[in-house]
Amino acid sequence: MLGGNSRNRTQTRHVLGAAAGACAALTVLGLTAVPAAADGVPDFRPEQWALQSAGAQEIWESTRGQGLTVALPGVSVNEEHPDIRDNLEVDTEFGGNGTDTEQGTAAASLVAGHGHGMDADGGVLGVAPEAELLVLPGDDLPGAIRYAVDAGAQVVLLPEEVGTDGDQSEATAEAAEGGTLVVAPAGGEEDPNVLAVGGVDENGGLVPDPPETSSVELLAPGAALEAAGTDMGLNEVTGTPYAAAVAAGAAALLRAEYPQLSPEQVREALVGGAQQGAEGLPLLHLPGAATQAAEVAEDNPLLDEDLVEEDSPDVPVWIWFALAGVVLAIVVILLALWVRRSSKDPYGVAAERRTQDEELAAERAERARAEERPSRRRKGGRRRKG
Length: 386
What we know:
Layout: E1 4-9, H1 16-29, H2 49-54, H3 56-60, E2 69-73, E3 88-90, H4 102-112, E4 132-136, H5 141-150, E5 155-157, H6 166-177, E6 181-185, E7 194-200, E8 218-221, E9 225-228, E10 234-239, H7 240-257, H8 263-272, E11 275-276, E12 282-283, H9 286-298, H10 305-311, H11 317-343, H12 349-380
Parallel strand pairs: 2-4, 2-5, 3-4, 5-6, 6-7, 7-8
Antiparallel strand pairs: 1-10, 9-10, 11-12
Helix pairs in contact: 4-7, 5-6, 7-8, 8-9
């Protein structure tokens, strides 16, 4: 695994009586469970301090990332894990889904884990639990980044810090131009098109073996995080890759809520709306980021007319003329039929004349028959007497 460590932890469900007792104990101690399910159904998912620290639940009132795709290139995942399988797609364009699934599975669940379902059975909730996950295993990160952008991913989460690969830098630049925000663990080369994220623990301190602070643009929860494990259970993970996963989920929420914003505007909102963290670095705070994003969105139309024009297919002029001709011909035909129908004996004169002609012909025939009957009697005459 790159840049982090984990500790296996199997989640066990207790009977309802024991769970009720645990909830009562938490109430007495004044602790807050996360997050309560809808309609008053208790949520037995593990306490996830990262969600509370980032203020994700406040944003969930508006969006949970629905309609948004986050791509994870360069990792493999446990496709059958119940916390991610319902919104997960694994594309093997650049390599098969391997057996080393620890980092990928954990990161995927931190971005968009949906737990075991909507009935509060348990499991991990990601920052954007209704977003879609596109996993692209393989070593070709530049190719996978370009592929993810073409597939419509609005956020790309890199598994490791940015290296010196020039092709990768070109790919991230193309992603930014294509409307995709790239997020990566801090500690590598500076890339103006990548949001570099460092990690903090629950007390606000930097994670063990932190990257150089000069390479960190944003801090996010990255220590002792409950995440989906390789054994269908849970792992507790620590490291900058997992802090980057939390930040990627946050970016997904903003992009889902404000689709008119560019990747750079979303990035500025995340950094500008942050709170002060360790070493004076900005610490992820979604409510503040959403406030900044909303202010910028007011000045940006939801529909980018330039993008619409660019995306519109070029249609030859002769096709437009042909279509116009067909429509005009149909209109003329319909108009002619209407005129013919409406002008055909509109006042019933012809019908009245036919009736009169028929009556006159009948009278003449009757008169002719009447004239023939007397002439026949005169022709016979009376018989002469002998």
